[in-house]
Amino acid sequence: MNKFDIIIIGSGLGGLLCGYILSKEGYHVCILEKQAQAGGNLQTFSRHGHKFETGVHYLGALGPGQTLNRYWKYFGLTESIDFQQLDPDCFDRVIFGDEEFPLAQGFENFTDQLLPLFPGAKASLNRYVREIHEITSAFPLYNLELPVDHREHHFTTQSACGFIADVTSGIRNPGSNVSLSAVLSGNNYLYGGSRLTPLHVASLISHSFISGAYRIIGGSDRITQILQDAIISHGGSIIKKQAVTAIGQLQQKFTITTGTGQVFHSEKVVSNIHPATTLSMMPADIVRPAYQKRIVSLQNTISSFILFLSVKPGSFPYLNYNYYYHTAHDPWDETTAPDSKWPRMFLLSTGCHKPSQQYAETVTILTYMRFDDVSQWNHTSVGKRGPEYHDFKNKKAEKLLEVVYAKFPGLKPAIENIEISTPLTYRDYTGIPEGSLYGIQKNFHEPLLTNVMPKTKIPNFYFTGQNTNLHGVLGVTIGSVVTCGEILGLEYILKKIQNA
Ligand SMILES: Cc1cc2nc3c(=O)[nH]c(=O)nc-3n(C[C@H](O)[C@H](O)[C@H](O)COP(=O)(O)OP(=O)(O)OC[C@H]3O[C@@H](n4cnc5c(N)ncnc54)[C@H](O)[C@@H]3O)c2cc1C
Question: Which of 32, 97, 200, 273 has the fewest CB atoms within 10 Å, measured from its CB?
Fold first, then answer.
């Protein structure tokens, strides 16, 4: 009963998409998930009748004919989910003090909306747009095409931060002195705000959102539901509350042991969980110590501190854009700022619960937090962290809200209830080490070292998810196709997706 062709460890987006492809192709697939709810970062939760997103606030390249839209057609997601397009003239509003700057959808519109605020920046903005087009074209899978050369390497060794500074050199808003560089980096929370971020990571993400930025109406758990149902209808299974604890090998077959003591067998394994966690479950006769050491040594992206607010009916507007507020003028210094300056930024996003919503039901406020800040509660679990932890969370929430209320005074009286998450919350609900926002930190100084390949040095063992290709919903979608391409042939599966 516990024998399968392929076992997938973890039911995050990457695990579910691989489960979909492989079960559709006739493999007998089983997904083992640690939590009671599948989806990883796609999970939602409800409080006082309000539903909250945990790891998907908006999606890029979802317009007709765009990348995610085309990939998701194959998975049956495009037509089964309702989406709300964000404001075409401003999907992200970047704020420094009292100065607000729109990031718009459509490449011409993107330039047109910024030009009045940065007169004389036409050449720079045109160059920015031209170069991010060129960079994305070096990644053929972004356009559902087979990779033919290695042009992408040129961009993996450059820094996103350096590129933006170079393109915009010296250009400032005449009224506020805010630089164009700061504005174009203003939503760098999307890739963890690190100066180590390679150029291609920032460019692929920015390109996707400028192409078309959307919210899911009703919650990202809809993605999980559709994929789960499809996998089961293809003959696959998803078994929850089965935390994988050991991975062994017996006569060329994998033996996967879970916390309940059950043992599962398969010919192939796809791991959707962090590579360091995965390799730590394997004995030395399966994984070479040098490979394990390399993966375990990789740094992760920073974590987050998040407030989930329920608001009174009709009391706070639904904002059809995301609000990136910065207390200082350099978005690249925010993750390393001293504690006394916390919080250096916040991202405010209103949940999308129905079409043409006028008022917000939920507001989510995100900022960075280092795992070190909560490491004294490292050995505690959800709901059992003690009064000091609650005190810590509440004090941090007050401090963050002070900054938020200065910008949104109307929010304070509108709040009905507040839920708070820290790096420990994300660690314990998604299994990601240190509650990291996006997994392994890609580093332009060491692109090969920090890019974990889906095909491992262990025959028939693969990785998928945000730690392999690129994080985010689009990155994980493309990555799942690359992982399955290692098993089925990339050309074969890509053709099916192109023709869907
Ligand atoms: C706060 C936040 C906001 C974000 N906002 C956006 C956004 O607006 N747009 C966007 O595109 N992306 C966003 N992202 C990123 C995006 O959500 C992730 O990159 C993506 O969902 C990761 O998918 P994954 O396949 O890597 O799996 P994960 O989501 O990491 O899931 C891994 C799964 O494995 C399970 N697991 C772990 N250990 C074990 C074990 N031992 N045994 C069995 N199962 C195990 C976990 O329980 C989990 O279900 C955000 C992320 C965060 C944290």
Answer: 97
How far apart are alpha carbons 398 and 255 in whole angstroms? 48
Q: What is the pLDDT of residues 160-182, one digit of tens each?
A: 999 999 999 989 999 999 999 99
Q: Which atom, in ligand 1's list, is nearest to the CA of 474?
A: 11
By the 10 Å C-beta count (0-12 exposed, 13-18 middle, 19+ buried), 137 is classed as middle
32 CA: nearest ligand 1 atom: 43
**Are the beta carbons of 224 and 38 closer than 8 angstroms?**
yes
CATH 3.40.50 fits domain 83-217+300-435: no
Residue 243 near ligand 1, beta carbon < 6 Å:
yes
**Alpha helices (runs of H) in 104-190, residue ranges in sequence order:** 107-114, 122-137, 153-156, 160-167, 180-184
- CATH 3.50.50.60 residue window(s) in the chain: 3-82+220-297+448-498
Spatial distance between the Cα atoms of 450 and 471, rounded to a whole number of angstroms: 13
d(CA 324, CA 180): 15
Report domain 3-82+220-297+448-498's class.
alpha beta
List beta partners, residue 30. Answer: 7, 237
Q: Which amino acid residue places its CA nearest to atom 7 of ligand 1?
A: 56
Question: Measured between alpha carbons, how far is 356 from 351 in angstroms, rounded to an integer?
Answer: 12
CB 33 within 8 A of CB 11: yes
Q: How far is CA 14 from CA 75, 166, 467, in A?
A: 12, 35, 10
Whether 432 is in the pocket of ligand 1, judged by its Cβ within 6 Å, is yes
Pairwise CA distance, residues 140 & 147, whole Å: 5
pLDDT at 261: 97
- Which residues, 6+ apart, have CB-to-CB distance to 408 below 8 Å? 316, 348
Give the residue, out of 9, 21, 41, 321, with the most ligand 1 atoms within 8 A of its beta carbon, to mutate for a pocket test: 41
Give the end-to-end CA distance of the chain in Å, rounded to a whole number. 33
Per-residue pLDDT reduced to its tens digit, 40-86: 999 999 998 999 999 999 999 999 999 999 999 999 999 999 999 99
